């Protein structure tokens, strides 16, 4: 009997979506590179390991199907990983020409022919580290030449050689012991999880490559040095900490890039600008003139004559709506497009002919692709890709009717698809999720995640939205007298959203696989539902969103077919989600939640979210206008501070915090931990000495999952159990406007996830 039970348990676990499977799954990038002739693309893939070894990398080279009318029968062939060339050890590469790739390995830049990629040729040695994924290649006006560009961090002298002259052994030893910052310029002194090195900035370098003179020869450097296009400026591009290749673009004539406004204190302003620098003159030209907020995604048109970017109107407000901007480099005319469109896109892509612009944006719990026609004045925005499920992270037009799309979902890693506009279909070209090497290959999922909505408790004729995730073994027909525990996950931001995309951090499906029905809610403040839906959270952190969450939970509990136990409810969240957990802790009067988990949350809004913050503009915009030392503004900061309600902190709570979290400092976690243990409430602290706002080390991620699973199970159990007597269920049938009078379930709709774009602050 015991042997049979053990075998059954082992079989069950072998099919479950476990944290180990999540952490070690392949990680395809959405930053794939298409060859100039559109016949191949390069796809970087990384792998994380639980033994403490560094991540490993592979570069996949895929062929794009040409002149083929694809149908569903084509999919099994297209998804074959066997068709790809796999180059181990390369984390990123781009195309030198149709037959050669270029990449960085250590302190050298190499090229390799596609036909025999093992025959690498060293192009250059680097006197200082560069951003390996920043390589870009563009043709020049001279036949037989290419321009190579990359970004690197340098000091005020602007040279790669100067880095080593500053960062001597003695300098580094002192830097490890003592750091000194002035307070007169409003610059960041630490950001996210890093201390900022004074004077060091990322800038764009270029050099010329000469083509092979005869068959069998390799590309070579035309010059022995690299030119810093931004030398003697204070430009910092890409913008730290999350800036990347999307912060700059290149044409035959020059470069466009974004940088934080050079004349404003960066720690309390969000304004950034778009600049153009000509290769010929070296002159920097400001394109984004006037008063505005942050800019993003600068892009050249295919002919290099126009520039597009996204721009916010309000300086200081990182979650403002992004509006499409167009600038004609010939006429020097600038205009805003799609101003009435109530979405905030994250990326801009010109069509192959330059007559249309595609926009990637969150929209009702997915990330979708929309399009506007420049020939029609860019007035209307329409859906560009039919997306029944999943979320798009990258879109690359190949021709008028064909594009490559990177997309993921709750149950699919990032995969690359061929999109054909004439039949509105996506055809998979990769299949890492189910490949033989994937840790996900044998996973058996539960019932498909379900999108639902319910009435807003505060705003008439408005709905709030969410997802339900089911464990394997769940049945909509019920389990007799048995019901499942409910785990409520609360997203960060607060201007963020749970969407139908893959996440290696807070993945709802891995929590469901642990034996819970999981609900993820997108309350007031969430992105993808319009700016008004989002902006109502300002000065209302603990009101509208809190009531939306409670209404959403009660709505799910009232759904008989959901099969959840009102006596086994827990909640967990990180960042703003952690703030909300602490807020719930002081308002759990009816005992609805039996256990709570707070990861990098806020205990006191003033002492946690304002005074020690790295980005001071965030608390000022969320709780302002006004500063906390102004008596008239102080009350606004304090009105929704969890610390004010500690007299009612009675619910068992796990607290997680990272020592290197400069977004929400560790004292916030310690304060919550001390409060609970001094009050005699069961609590536990999980502290990571080398983690910041996110848990990145695979071993720590596993520990994180294990601790959360154990804590929640301690108070709610896992799997279906017989329903106990109810002490709080009476409250489920009270105010219909709070709990949701009518069940509303959306079928045949898609998904998306990773808190993106607006609201990156608290995630």
Automatic annotation (TrEMBL):
MF terms in GO: serine-type endopeptidase activity
Signal sequence interval, chain numbering: none
Domain called Peptidase S9 prolyl oligopeptidase catalytic: residue spans: 502-717
Residues in coiled coil: none
Biased composition (Basic and acidic residues): 735-747
Region (Disordered): 719-763
Biased composition regions of type Polar residues, renumbered to the chain: 724-734
UniProt entry keywords in alphabetical sequence: Hydrolase, Protease, Signal
Keyword Signal: yes
Tree of life domain: Eukaryota
InterPro entries named among the record's database cross-references: 6-blade_b-propeller_TolB-like, AB_hydrolase_fold, Peptidase_S9_cat
Pfam families on file: Peptidase_S9
One record GO biological process: proteolysis
Recorded family membership: Belongs to the peptidase S9C family.
Name of the protein described by the UniProt record: Dipeptidyl-peptidase V
